[in-house]
Write a structure and sequence with these properties.
Length: about 150
């Protein structure tokens, strides 16, 4: 405690002032303890961090989808019509050739092998859209590479 000085500047604190000081100290101590408890709660911190990362991943995924869509439109817009026509024509030729080869193979293939091939074909037909998408992408990549080589 402070003792009063001769000039009265350091007068002894009143009991009310001491109570207020004790209350402020308790509040500060409570805040400090809460902050330390929050830092020690690793599970809660991990949940908060996981939520932040998940939110960032959603944003990045949306950006990637948007950029991919823009790139696809740009490639399509920049691809000359003759190239698109050739790709379409090539796809039709591949389809026709595959049909002919399939018929020929079917005629010359033994029955047990043919049954297994039908089972595989039925499985592939169930996943038709992804297979078509991959085939179309492959054709587009090959045509772009071919056109770049000619330049």
């Amino acid at each position: 405690m402070n003792t009063p000085s001769h000039d009265g500047k350091n007068a002894a604190p009143t009991p009310e002032a001491l109570r207020e000081q004790v209350e402020r100290t308790r509040d500060e101590l409570g805040t400090t303890v809460e902050a330390l408890a929050a830092k020690a709660d690793v599970k809660a911190q991990a949940k908060v961090k996981a939520a932040e990362i998940k939110e960032q991943a959603v944003v990045v995924t949306d950006r990637i989808r948007e950029k991919t869509s823009q790139a696809a439109r740009s490639v399509k817009d920049r691809t000359p019509d003759p190239v698109l026509d050739k790709a379409s024509h090539a796809a039709a030729q591949v389809h026709d050739t595959a049909t002919r080869v399939g018929r020929l193979a079917s005629e010359k293939t033994p029955d047990p092998v043919r049954e297994k091939a039908w089972a595989a074909a039925n499985l592939a037909q169930g996943k038709r859209t992804p297979l078509i998408a991959v085939g179309a992408a492959l054709v587009a990549v090959l045509l772009v590479r071919r056109s770049r080589r000619r330049r």
